[in-house]
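User: Quick sanity check before I run a bigger batch. Here is a single chain. Can you write out its predicted 3D structure?
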Amino acid sequence: MPRADRMLPRSPAEAVVLSYFTLLMARDLDGLETIWREDAVQEIPFPPEGFGAFVTPVFDGRDAIMAHYRAAFANRRDHVFTIEAVHGTDDADCIVVEATAQSLVGETGRIYCNRYVCVFRLVDGRIAMLREYVDPLAFAAAFSGGFDAHR
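Assistant: Done. Predicted structure follows.
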């Protein structure tokens, strides 16, 4: 499986979606902010329990989304996304990505390893919606006890 930062996009929409993963890997949160629409929504249908506002089922608006990423990536190191598959749909602005993430969580000293299925919807070349399916138990195992935001 290739790393996200080594993949060549097949369309402008795929370029935006792959930049999402690449910017997170680089911890370039200012760059990440530019690919989201102001009115964007991020959904996590199966959030881990016990994390309060740190991980909620819905982050509404770019500011709320970015606050989440700024907290989640404050002490992440060696974050790598490998891409298993990128699926186009009948709608050129809807892309589905299967990916795996791995990193070191500085707050806990644990390795985070999780699989994702991400459904992206773009509007005017920026992310309007991301629905992120992830294993909440893997998230909780790596992050539990590391953030005051969820206590």
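Confidence is low (pLDDT under 50) at residues 147-151.

User: Great, the batch can go ahead then.
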